[in-house]
């Protein structure tokens, strides 16, 4: 594997929820144009850590985040950084598909509209089409862009949400268990899509499923009880784990 | 699935390539919009709170003076020549002397008091009659009642505490001034000067107005004597009726709907009716009361029984809704436990579910009662606006006697010309609000004390 | 026998039933409770129920219907001439009733003996005078036909009373015996009593239906009477409101409806933005401390009775608006005005709108907000473009409920809006000035039904037609709002 440019550099990161120390001393480098998977048993802090990367934890009053999160060398928790601008750069897809109660078109156009990415209607149309194509759902919805996004099936909704995230032209795409609410067929479609997205984005995916991590990611980080236990090439982690905890997890003894 | 790679053109230039540390113009604009939006929200809350404060301050500042009152203490010689011409002390003869016959006694007493305190009535240029008019017209009635109760006191000199006329009273509360007195046919600046002199001499005093709380209403031209006694009793009677009817009926209906009712059209019909009745305008209940209870069933007008029935029907939906909520909050495991040891469904409800839900039910009932206590419009239609001076008898007969109610008394007073009644109306509102506040406080305490989390 | 005594007698019998039933059940089981199907007290209650319930139902029905039946029979015997003279049967019958009551009183006071009261003839005795002497209120001279009717009325009433007393007591005894005969150790007393209790519960629930029925029927009948005397077209489409108790009234509803809608609109224009923004701020922005203070404070506004708002309009807001705005701008000199009532009513509705909207905004799932934040939207963009559109149906429902409140509100408009109907024939300027007094449907219901009322004249009856209109409008709004809100709730459950 060739070494790629490092997109996110996280150093000694801590997260507290009230008195609970949820993330302890985590340091990890996330590369550009790579799929990085966070795995670990539930409650290990992988989702919490993911939400630090675009400051979604800001919306939770009790959460406190410390440590260095450098995106292209800039600390995203710097006082001068506006989380709104950050999130345009670091998009996010959630566990459950959450289309807005609007039309399919408006769902995708929402991001470009608020960030002012389109100068006119024609440009907006173009962005919407490009995003829906990149979300691999264009063929299914191109004839009913005006119908509500909530009327789609679960897998379609999730791909719509991915298209929606892609539409703001982010550089990093965070995915929080994007397939956990989907059936196997829809999961396969989304996984295929993630693989394609790697060409243009740095993708970070949190997943419960080790098979999924093995299938889609190049790098894997294993979290356990708020600690980053092991981080490395996916193949390496799954075939030759260095830490006994990682081994226990991937062989199914803890989980 | 292939269209993504096949059709997507090369990525356009990344739009966010600038530093995160520098805010773009658009971000600044959006953040300003955010600040504005927040400010609107804060302003809305501010307006709401300001309205509450203005409302309360306005009512308090207008109403608090109603709780103090100017009194004049004088010794009155109960002249036998005027009160008992026959000299027999025959009570029937004494009763024949009307209140007009007592006015001269007060007039004389007034002159007497002034000279005794070294005040020269001549100096103010007031006639004897004008000086007498500074005492409430209620004074003569007060004297007469005393004499009829104690005929043996005729011929003695007795000390009385009279109400001052409402204008004099208003002068000490700032409602009447020298300037306004010049334009007022009911009071002259000279009377006010005399009042000042009397106050200096200690004859005239301002004290707490117990009479406002205990007295019945008074007629148009003696606001100083008007009180909310009858209204409080009337409201109390109605609340007793509402409590006795609405609580058992409401609880019974809720138990049926929550625990026993099958899923059918009849249950649906009841449910729809309850939720609709909760939103029917109160005046419609007044029309119902007038048409059904008074015109059809022949119950008396202005009676607490009719008011109580109308308010019961109005309060029922509130009580049913809150009772059902508290029944619902009792976990099914309790019911299962009771059924499991062989209790019947009825026994499980009455022995276990109902006692556990009781605090919630009582809280809802108190809030329903508080609502009923402040209700005005339906009571106006069933004749409670009538002028009632007699206290109703003790229950149960008293439920059928004419009475007033606190909120209706307030309305009544606002319809009268003399501004002194506005003060009384605001005072009555304060009493009403104190009742409501203590009821809500009680409800909060109940909830805090007995609330269970399952 | 007075009704109270009958009731007490029946209850006494019931009590006897309770104790006898209980001890009989115990006796049949040889004093061993375990042999019984139900607890002993259930046998007691069973006997009590069978004694008391049927007899009291008969008593109630008798009391309800007997007077009408008697009156109808008496009215039938009255000569036609007398009927025509007095104008209406009901007036004549009330005269008969009064005479009968006065005769009762006279016998009671001992000024007449019973036989004399029965045979008394108006031609020979000064009946009117003698009856007045008892302290009864006799307004007209008692004529012979009325006197005869009154005498008959007394006879029939006392017979009816006697039959009723006997019937009720006999029924109670029969019920008591029946229940006691059935009492043995295998009798399922608990089930019977529970059926009884359940019937009471059902009866209590049906009161809601009876109330609605009472509202609709009472207004429907009087409204029908009104439309007999006044054409419905002129009521619904008339543009002039000028009641005149001497007759020839113009009773068009439109000016009142206009006033109602105008004031409600002003109120909603105040309440909806403020209530909505307050709800948004409290649920999306405010910290726990501000919320703990501001939320209950705003809810206090909801607990204040409308009479307080009315007084506030009358003594504070009205004069302030007149002196600060209306007079300087030459828009009028009224303390009572559309603006006064509308503003104050708006304040009243703020907590109503805000607490309903608060519930609705909280029902929008957090995942939707996350989705928007994840795309880099600011909080206000999220609220305006995602949360509010998602909550829109619920918010519309809340606004409809608030509108129904505003339309049905009475005290604030009685004290703040004035009694003058909008003069629709004076042109647009006269009806849109918000600083003039303008009356509403509810104000007119109050004014037509208080004071001296004559339930035969259209000027009084119009209040029922107005009430029915009001009921139908608010009912429609409520039902619509409930449907919308329910649909909305289902969407997120």
Estimated structural class of chain C = mainly alpha
Strand order of the largest sheet of chain C: 1-2
What is the string of helix and strand elements of chain C? HHHHHHHHHEEHHHHHHHHHH
**CATH fold-type name of chain A:** Rossmann fold
Which regions of chain C contain 5 or more consecutive residues with pLDDT less than 50? none
Instruction: Give the domain tally of chain A.
Output: 1
Shape of chain C: flat
SSE string of chain A, helix = H, strand = E?
A: EEEHEEHEHHHHEHEHEEHH
Mean pLDDT of chain C: 86
Number of strands of chain C: 2
Fill in the CATH topology of the largest domain in chain C: MetI-like fold
The gyration radius over C-alpha positions of chain A equals 18 Å
Silhouette of chain A: globular
Number of helices of chain A: 10
Provide the β-strand percentage band of chain C: under 5%
| First-to-last CA distance of chain A | 30 Å
Question: What can be said about the biggest beta sheet of chain A?
Answer: 6 strands, mixed
Per CATH, the superfamily of chain A is P-loop containing nucleotide triphosphate hydrolases
What does this structure look like?
The complex is a heterotrimer of chains A (255), B (454) and C (493). Chain A is an alpha/beta fold and 255 residues long. Chain A has a single domain, classed as P-loop containing nucleotide triphosphate hydrolases (Rossmann fold). Helix content of chain A is 36%, strand content 26%. Chain A has a six-stranded mixed β-sheet, sandwiched between helices. The model of chain A has no long low-confidence stretch (mean pLDDT 89). With 454 residues, chain B is mostly helical. Chain B folds into two domains: 67-208, no CATH class; 229-450, Orthogonal Bundle (MetI-like fold). Helix content of chain B is 64%, strand content 5%. Chain B has helices at 3-7, 25-63, 80-83, 91-96, 103-116, 121-124, 128-132, 138-149, 166-173, 178-183, 189-201, 210-214, 229-260, 265-277, 282-296, 304-328, 332-340, 345-374, 377-381, 406-414, 419-450; strands at residues 68-77, 157-163, 204-208. Chain B has a three-stranded antiparallel β-sheet with strand order 2-1-3. In chain B, α13 (229-260) runs parallel beside α16 (304-328) and α13 (229-260) crosses α20 (406-414). The longest helix of chain B is centred in the first third of the chain and has 39 residues, at 25-63. Chain B is extended, with a radius of gyration of 33 Å. Chain B starts with a helix and ends with a helix. Chain C has 493 residues and is an all-alpha fold. Chain C folds into three domains: 3-187, no CATH class; 189-229; 241-491, MetI-like (MetI-like fold), CATH 1.10.3720.10. Helix content of chain C is 77%, strand content 1%. Chain C contains 19 helices and two strands. A two-stranded antiparallel ribbon of chain C has the order 1-2. In chain C, α4 crosses α7 (144-182). Chain C starts with a helix and ends with a helix. Chains B and C meet through α2, α13, α14, α15 and α16 of B and α8, α10, α11, α12 and α13 of C.
């Amino acid at each position: 594997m060739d070494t790629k440019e490092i997109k996110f550099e996280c150093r000694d990161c801590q997260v507290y929820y009230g008195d609970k120390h949820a993330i302890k001393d985590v340091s990890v480098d996330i590369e550009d144009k790579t799929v990085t998977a966070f795995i670990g048993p539930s409650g290990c802090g992988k989702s919490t850590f993911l939400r630090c990367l675009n400051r979604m934890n800001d919306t939770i009053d009790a959460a406190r985040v410390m440590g260095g999160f450098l995106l292209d060398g800039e600390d995203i928790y710097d006082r001068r950084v506006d989380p709104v601008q950050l999130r345009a750069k670091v998009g996010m897809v959630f566990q459950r598909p959450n289309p807005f109660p609007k039309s399919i078109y408006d769902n995708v156009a929402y991001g470009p509209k608020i960030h002012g990415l389109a100068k006119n209607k024609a440009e907006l149309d173009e962005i919407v089409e490009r995003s829906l194509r990149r979300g691999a759902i264009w063929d299914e919805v191109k004839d009913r862009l005006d119908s509500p996004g909530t009327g789609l099936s679960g897998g379609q909704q999730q791909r719509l949400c991915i298209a929606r995230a892609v539409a703001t032209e982010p550089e990093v795409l965070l995915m929080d268990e994007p397939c956990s609410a989907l059936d196997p067929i829809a999961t396969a479609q989304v996984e295929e899509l993630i693989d394609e997205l790697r060409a243009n984005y740095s993708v970070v995916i949190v997943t419960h499923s080790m098979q999924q991590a093995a299938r889609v990611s190049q790098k894997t980080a294993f979290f356990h009880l708020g600690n980053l236990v092991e981080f490395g090439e996916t193949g390496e982690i799954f075939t030759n784990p260095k830490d006994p905890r990682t081994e226990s997890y991937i062989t199914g003894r803890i989980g | 699935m292939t269209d993504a790679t096949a059709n997507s053109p090369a990525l356009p230039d990344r739009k966010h390539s600038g530093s995160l540390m520098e805010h773009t113009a658009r971000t600044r604009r959006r953040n300003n919009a955010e600040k504005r939006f927040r400010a609107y929200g804060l302003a809305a809350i501010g307006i709401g709170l300001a309205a509450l404060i203005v409302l309360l301050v306005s009512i308090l500042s207008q109403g608090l003076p109603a709780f103090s009152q100017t009194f004049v203490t004088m010794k009155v010689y109960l002249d036998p020549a005027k009160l008992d011409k026959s000299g027999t002390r025959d009570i029937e003869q004494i009763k024949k002397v009307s209140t007009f016959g007592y006015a001269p006694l007060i007039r004389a007493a007034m002159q007497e008091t002034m000279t005794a305190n070294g005040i020269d009535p001549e100096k103010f240029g007031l006639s004897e009659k004008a000086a007498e008019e500074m005492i409430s017209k209620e004074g003569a009635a007060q004297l007469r009642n005393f004499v009829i109760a104690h005929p043996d006191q005729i011929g003695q000199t007795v000390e009385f505490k009279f109400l001052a006329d409402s204008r004099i009273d208003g002068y000490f509360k700032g409602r009447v001034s020298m300037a306004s007195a010049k334009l007022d046919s009911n009071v002259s600046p000279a009377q006010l000067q005399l009042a000042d002199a009397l106050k200096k001499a200690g004859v005239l005093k301002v004290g707490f107005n117990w009479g406002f709380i205990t007295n019945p209403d008074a007629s148009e031209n003696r606001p100083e004597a008007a009180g909310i006694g009858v209204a409080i009793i009337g409201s109390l009677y109605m609340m007793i009726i509402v409590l006795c009817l609405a609580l058992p009926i409401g609880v019974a209906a809720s138990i049926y709907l929550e625990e026993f009712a099958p899923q059918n059209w009849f249950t649906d019909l009841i449910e729809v009716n309850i939720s609709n009745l909760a939103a029917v305008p109160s005046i419609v209940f007044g029309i119902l009361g007038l048409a059904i209870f008074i015109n059809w069933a022949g119950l008396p007008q202005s009676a607490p029984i009719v008011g109580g029935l109308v308010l019961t029907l109005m309060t029922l939906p509130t009580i049913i809704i809150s009772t059902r909520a508290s029944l619902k909050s009792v976990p099914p495991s309790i019911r299962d436990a009771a059924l499991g040891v062989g209790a019947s469904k009825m026994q499980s409800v009455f022995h276990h579910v109902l006692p556990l839900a009781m605090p919630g039910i009582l809280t809802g009932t108190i809030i329903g009662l508080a609502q009923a206590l402040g209700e005005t419009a339906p009571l106006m239609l069933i004749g409670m606006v009538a002028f009632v001076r007699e206290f109703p008898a003790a229950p149960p007969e008293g439920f059928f006697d004419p009475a007033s109610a606190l909120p209706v008394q307030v309305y009544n007073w606002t319809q009268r010309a003399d501004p002194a009644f506005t003060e009384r109306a605001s005072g009555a509102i304060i009493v009403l609000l104190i009742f409501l506040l203590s009821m809500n406080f009680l409800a909060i305490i109940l909830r805090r004390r007995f609330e269970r989390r399952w | 026998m007075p009704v109270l005594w009958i009731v007490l007698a029946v209850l006494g019998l019931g009590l006897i039933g309770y104790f006898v039933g209980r001890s009989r059940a115990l006796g049949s089981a040889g004093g061993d409770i375990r042999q019984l199907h139900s607890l002993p007290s259930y046998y007691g209650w069973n006997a009590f129920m069978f004694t008391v319930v049927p007899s009291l139902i008969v008593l109630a029905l008798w009391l309800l219907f007997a007077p009408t039946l008697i009156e109808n029979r008496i009215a039938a015997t009255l000569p036609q001439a007398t009927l025509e003279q007095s104008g209406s049967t009901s007036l004549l019958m009330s005269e008969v009733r009064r005479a009968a009551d006065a005769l009762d009183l006279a016998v009671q006071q001992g000024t007449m003996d019973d036989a004399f009261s029965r045979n008394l003839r108006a031609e020979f005795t000064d009946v009117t005078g003698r009856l007045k002497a008892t302290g009864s209120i006799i307004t007209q001279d008692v004529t012979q036909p009325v006197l005869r009717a009154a005498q008959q009325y007394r006879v029939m009433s006392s017979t009816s009373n006697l039959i009723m007393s006997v019937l009720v007591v006999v029924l109670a005894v029969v019920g008591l015996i029946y229940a006691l005969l059935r009492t043995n150790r295998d009798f399922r007393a608990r089930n019977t009593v529970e059926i009884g209790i359940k019937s009471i519960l059902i009866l209590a629930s049906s009161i809601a239906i009876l109330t609605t029925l009472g509202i609709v029927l009472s207004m429907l009948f009087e409204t029908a009477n009104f439309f007999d005397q006044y054409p419905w077209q002129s009521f619904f489409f008339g543009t002039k409101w000028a009641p005149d108790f001497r007759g020839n009234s113009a009773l068009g509803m439109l000016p009142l409806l206009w006033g109602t809608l105008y004031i409600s609109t002003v109120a909603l224009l105040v309440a909806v933005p403020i209530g909505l923004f307050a709800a948004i701020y409290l649920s999306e922005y405010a910290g726990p401390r501000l919320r703990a203070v501001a939320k209950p404070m705003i809810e206090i506004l909801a607990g204040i009775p409308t009479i307080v708002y009315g007084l506030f309009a009358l003594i504070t807001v009205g004069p302030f608006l007149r002196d600060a705005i209306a007079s300087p701008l030459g828009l009028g000199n009224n303390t009572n005005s559309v603006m006064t009532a509308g503003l104050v009513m708006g304040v009243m509705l703020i907590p109503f709108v805000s607490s309903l909207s608060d519930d609705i905004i909280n029902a929008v799932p957090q995942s939707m907000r996350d989705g928007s934040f994840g795309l880099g939207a600011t909080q206000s963009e999220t609220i305006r473009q995602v949360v509010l559109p998602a909550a829109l149906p619920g918010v519309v429902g809340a606004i409809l409920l608030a509108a129904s409140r505003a339309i049905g509100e009475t005290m604030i408009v009685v004290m703040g809006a004035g009694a003058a109907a909008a003069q629709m024939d004076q042109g647009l300027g006269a009806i849109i000035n918000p600083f003039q007094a303008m009356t509403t449907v509810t104000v007119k219901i109050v004014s037509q039904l208080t004071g001296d009322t004559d339930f035969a004249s259209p000027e009084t009856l119009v209040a029922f037609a107005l009430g029915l209109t009001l009921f139908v409008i608010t009912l429609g709004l409520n039902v619509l709002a409930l449907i919308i809100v329910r649909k909305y709730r289902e969407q997120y459950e």
